[in-house]
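seq as requested:
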Amino acid sequence: MHLVQTMAYAGEIPWHGLGNRLLPNQPIEVWVKQAGMDWHIEASEVHISPCFLERPLRIGSGL
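struct tokens:
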């Protein structure tokens, strides 16, 4: 079992046989798309209810 969902490679097929084969010297935009890394990242606020914490939350303590 593996956790790889998408990836890309150039040259020989990887030992696991997964991924999209690309020709050498492709632009980064092609690699990003073919490797499944064309994500759109958004930021949002996170709210934690104190009842779910085993101990008090201290800012900067790393939980």
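Residues 8-52 form one domain.
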